[in-house]
Amino acid sequence: MLNNLLILFSGYLLMWVLGFLIKKLLGNYIDILKSKEEKNGTKLGIIGAGASIGTLERILVFSLVLVDQYAAISIVFAAKSIARFKELDDRDVAEYYLLGTLASITMAVITGIIFKMIFGNIVNL
Length: 125
Hints:
By secondary structure, the chain is mainly α. It has helices at 2-25, 27-40, 49-66, 73-83, 91-119. The longest helix is centred in the C-terminal third of the chain and has 29 residues, at 91-119. The mean pLDDT is 85.
């Protein structure tokens, strides 16, 4: 039981670390959006909120993979899309959103599958 909790915690910690990789991968896009933001005098959101949302998203998707609820991952994607619906009219924001969300979900799913392959069924419901 304790072993499974440590494995689960390490997976959640890895979801947080993957955020830095995603931020690095999307660095050029972030710079484009910031320059566009400065030029238009607009603000795209609370600083750091996107990273926090991404971490929670990866933790949730990772957890869903561990309990074999792959279909529920679409609910996470749909909820984010609804929350950002108006912002998606801007092509640059839409592309950044899709790249970030798909990278985040893909990394969480792949990590979850690898954890299941290595450690077996660590979450018993």
